[in-house]
Amino acid sequence: MSEWRNSMLLSVLLLLAGSASAFVEELDDSFMETRGDEDIWLIKFYTPWCSFCRQLDPVWHQIGSELTSRGSPVHVGKSDGSTSPGLSKEFKVRGYPAILMLKKNVKYNYSGARTKEAILDFANRVGGPLVRSLSSVQLFQHAMSHHDVMFLYIGATSELKGNFTSSAEELIVHTYFFSASRDVLPKAVSLPSLPAVVVFKDGSYFQYEEKQDGDLKSWINRERFPNFCRIDSHTLYAMGESGKLVVLALLEPWSRSEESHRYKLLVEKVSSDYTEKYSRSFYFGYMEGSEYISGLVMGEVSLPSLIVLSLSTDGYFLSEGLQGEQQLLDFLDGVLDGSRKPQGGNSMLQRLLRVLFEARSSLRWMFSTFPVLGYVFVSVPFAFIGAVFYVCCWRRRNTSDDDDDDKEDKKND
User: Where is the Thioredoxin domain (predicted)?
Assistant: First the structure.
């Protein structure tokens, strides 16, 4: 009976694996020649020996199954970089796993979280229209309820709309783009003139102004994050590309104290109450733990604390303590007017020091977690150097002895 049950269980698992794999097609180097010109493909590039690739594999099959069940036009595939190097070269894959989308000969790289929800959102965003039309009040309200940040073009066809669509071609990997007529928007949205580009986020909206905000694409890239949010290392890196500074409350990771809670609420309050003053210069948020930041500042950071990061230069402004709102406002004003000098940076010396710090931190972690492996790792280079030194001395000694023997032989002759 037990054997029959195990056999049935194995059959069910094999059936499920087979049905899941049916939604994901294995692609080889002939893919670019055989695909349809209008096809949209979401592709994972992997290698058999990559552990991260194997971890992503069940998620990838779930994505294939869900997109198929939705009737999505997006096809899901995967390609083994070790057996199909030509396709990896075509997509300029530099590391595994890599996730890309091909849509009408345009390639889009995915650099977000390796979760089913995040990848599905990417596939839905890029696989659909570049600019989605909101033709009714109901559609506008539905979009507002489903997106923390959305960019909207309002008005008739114009040069601004062309720039908006051009920006969407590149930035669709990050955010959604919509268009609508003026009567779709709530009456509370005041627009001095049309056409206009507006970003809706944080329960408010901001209109793009070319004289003040500069290039439209750069402005969209700067404004594509909520003004206050939870920030992880990936989000922080992406924020750095916007050119804004990041005001970060560093909190205790597990059992947050009242002090950590106070830091978070204070930063959130300032981001909300002083949006007009600071939104063009800062992002605000919080991060649990300080491991990532410790690598940047090359030292331990006490928790909770507040830090302002200039990710374009790897510089930072560290607050010694945060007593109240006015102190935070003075600190931010000092960062903006230059009265507070940044620490760190990306000079050659700072880069070298950061490499040494990372190496020391890695060795410390290895010795604390795997002490035997740590000692072996450190002792092997010294053993190798000692062996080379011994061989050199041995050869030198033998050469010296041979020379002495030759001299003795010539003297006897």
Answer: 14-128
The DSSP call for residue 129 is -
Q: How far apart are the first and last CA of the chain?
A: 96
Give CATH superfamily name and number for 132-222: Glutaredoxin (3.40.30.10)
Domain 14-127 indexed as CATH 3.40.50.720: no
DSSP codes joined into one string, 231-243? --HHHHHHHHTTT
CA distance 84 to 262: 54
Q: Is 53 a catalytic residue?
A: yes
Class of domain 226-346: alpha beta
392 in active site = no
- Selecting among 50, 229, 392, 393, the annotated active-site residue is 50
Say yes or no: do domains 14-127 and 226-346 share a fold: yes
Domain ranges of the chain: 14-127, 132-222, 226-346
pLDDT in tens, 338-354: 898 888 866 676 666 56
Cα separations in angstroms, 153 against 3, 162, 184, 218, 328: 64, 10, 12, 16, 36
